[in-house]
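Continuing the batch. This is chain 6 of the set; chains 1 through 5 are on the previous pages. Same settings as before, nothing changed between runs. Recording input and output for traceability.
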Amino acid sequence: MRTALTLLAALGLAGAAAWRPAAAQTYSENAVKAAFLYRFAGYVDWPPAAQVHPQFTIAVLAADGVAMELGHLLQNRQVQNRPAQVRSIKSVSEIGSAQMLYIGADYRDDLRRAIATVSGQPILVVTSQQDGLDAGSAVNFLLLDQRVRFEISVDAAQAAGLRVASELLEVAVRVRGRRASFDAGCEDAATGAPPCVREAAQR
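Output for chain 6:
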């Protein structure tokens, strides 16, 4: 438990986008991704219809290591003011009432088709594929210079009825989409323009 708490502290938003697993031998890539998944839930707003379930569930597909780390991390923890649990699944059809779906790097079937299965539902889809955002995920993990980082698709999140907080957008390595309404925390001090929107415009 102390290890999990230390890892969560290390993944505070101030340093989240620059977390380097190699810098701390205690933490595996799976542990870092699990901690990120837990953190993501605190910076996303789900619609009221998705908040009626008694538990907050993170479904994990093709990532047994991440599921195991999440299982340890979520013990006696709450997410969105509800008890949290992780559920390993064999296909997207088993997602049930989960609010978050993580599809790991070991997934070998059609990623776009898998994500389309939950299209329009209030589910935060997170992937670990090079073309994750292109396939329709809202958040995609990247490994850059031995660092676990992530990119975000505002459009995909909004299509699922979710709102991503500007604090999370600020620490993403890349943000795709223009349609969100960003608060002052996402503004560039020099120009007043939201950096997340500016980067999206450059793509």
